[in-house]
Structure prediction request, 816 residues.
Amino acid sequence: MPEPKGWKELPIGGIIDSPGSARDLETGAWRARRPIVDKDKCTSCLQCWMFCPDMAVVVQADKMRGFDLYHCKGCGICAKICPADAIAMVAEAEAGTEGEGG
Amino acid sequence: MSDFRALDGNQAVAEAMRQINPDVVAAYPITPQTEAVQVFSQFVADGEVDTEFVTVESEHSAMSACVGAGAAGARVMTCTSSAGLALMWEITYIAASMRLPMVMMVANRALSGPINIHCDHADSMGTRDNGWIQIYSENPQEAYDNMIQAVRIAEHADVTLPVMVMQDGFITSHSVERVEVFDDAAVSGFVGPYAANFQLLGASRPLTFGALDFYDYYFEHKRQQVEAFSHATEAVLEVAADFNCRFGRDYGLFQAYRLDDAEVAVVVLSSTAGTAKVVVDDLRAQGIRAGLLKPRVFRPFPAAEIVRALSHVKAIAVMDRSTSFGSMMGAGPLFLETAAAFHVLGRAPQIPMVGYVFGLGGRDISPPDLEGVYHDLLAVADSGDVGDPVRYLGVRG
Amino acid sequence: MVTQTETPTRLTLRELAKKPDRLTSGHRMCPGCAAPLVVKQVLMAIDEPVVVVCATGCLEVATTIFPQTAWNVPFIHNAFENAAATASGVEAAYRSLVRQGKIEDDNTRIVVFGGDGSSYDIGLQSLSGAMERGHRLLYVCYDNNAYMNTGIQRSSATPVGANTTTSPVGKVQAGKKGARKDLTAIMAAHGIPYVAQASPHNWRDLMQKVRKATAIDGPSFINVLASCNRGWRHDPADTIEIQRLGVDSCLWPLYEVEDGVYRVTYRPKVKVPVSDYLASQGRFGHLLQPANQYIIEALQADVDRRWERLLRMAGEV
Prediction:
């Protein structure tokens, strides 16, 4: 994190002029359980994408590509609602590098 | 070309608003301000303004809608009084901290309870620390002139703060006087077009207004507001100079009336200063060197300028049309500010100073009352003994 | 006047997934919170530009911690009780500036988000005023049944019997006393063009309602059930299932009132007992004790009565 700006440098009025800048924040650090998708079972129905409160399901070219672990908080909604039972929640301490770079 | 018309203070303000032609007005009726928005409503109904008029269900919503409209990028105005201003209180802070340069007329009225619809300054004085520039008007002409100047002051690039323009409820708001109304084009030329610094609508990228600050940023944002006030004095003078140049009436931070060679001086706001001028003239005719200082701008408080203007007198009375419960000896805010200014900026020995609280809830203040104040001051100047430093004038024992 | 984008994005997951996020990752809402889901679905349903107005609450504090914002659209938070009045000002400014040619008319939609505290309670007057005045805006209440941001205090949206920090279960009290306020009915009574109830587990229903609401040149209100797993006390993973139970038990019927005409938009095939919904959440745990059975029975009777009334109003019985 850079040094916070002083009053002479900040824009007035308390406005934030960097839309979507919360993406810089690593909410994935909160996670206790990590979602792991079994790509053989996944049908890319995208239910997990719709019900992710953290916009942390990566979809490219209509396909579910994995999870944005920088932001995923590990709530487990995706695993619970997956109609193909393709997502497992694994304790973060035991997950190793699985699912990273998804 | 200007026109001279018989207008009361509310009508004069409505006329100024018509000429300013704000993008949005959100207002709610409250005595004695009601007439101002009522008259303005007719301008809206007749298509004489481009204004979108939001007839809100409370003053809280009036100020809230003004904040929404101001942040959206609109030039915004409203009017209120008394309990209405009190109900807006929370949001007046937000308007100021969001740095929204709106203008609000306040027809000064006592605060409940007991409920009272008449003039005192408890309402606006209660909001003196909320981050608004405060300008007080003596009569309908000043209310009109101040509304027009307030737009420029609020929107001044070095300021960007909301401005309250006060006039005395009923005494000024409902008194018909001869008011010089300028040409519409001259007024719109003076205020100019509005371009917001930041806006929700039509911005090149989406902005977030009203974010949450923790202890790591809140202080910096407050410091910026303090800085804006440090530029406001200069902006008030700059706008006043241009106003004088275009319209031929001279305004400053305060009005000094027969003060240059005065021995004793009264400091008082708004319509009472008009009465005091008559008293000063009478006393001068009797050979008494009486003078008057009528602050126009209370926020930012022109401390150094006031100290300078009064430094030669032998005794000062500061008269407040409101009190500050539990303050030092029950003194009013104008006295406390002035006394502090002399303590910090004045030179020794201190000039004797007396505070008077008067006129609460519309209690009349007459020329003999003010004469009495000047005679009190003469005695203080003579003896060097202030006696009771804070006095309540016109209240039954 | 009804204006709508010529070819709106089809409400399929594949099409919707191509849209950029208007609320981004990195917000600090709790894991499994339903509120960001509500925002995501509401804003995704709208193809036009939006301005978001937000009341004080979890959603606001967790998405706009200076100097970062999770909003990719123009956003304003003013205070707790005045989101609708603030939006009224934004809308008035939009009308005024467009009429004067100072900004372009780009069909900007004004969407307000407030929780139940700011909508049912402290902001009810502001909401009522904005609806009555006829501003073109959509007000979305995300109803999580209590003041969650301050720590789960009861609101007038809290169901009877719920254990909150100001309606605790004690020796002589079994949670919140009395029924919840029916804000959707209050909004319908304003006679505004569009009022609805929705739930994010049924995303297509919710998004269709948002589309209808924002196509109207006038005020609209959608009340959305939004679980708070901290306050309701359930596993965050169960959010969607619990929302479904709320709807399938008819405790939170999905319906709309369009120009005064009621329509039930989803009718459960099997009406789930209210006790199933209650049993899914820790806040109702004490109600399952035999001594409190009467509260469940009364609640079931109340839900049945309201559901029957809704069906009658919708002409479905």
Chain C has one domain: 13-313. The first strand of chain C starts at residue 50 and ends at 54. Chain C has a mean pLDDT of 97. Chain C has twelve helices and ten strands.
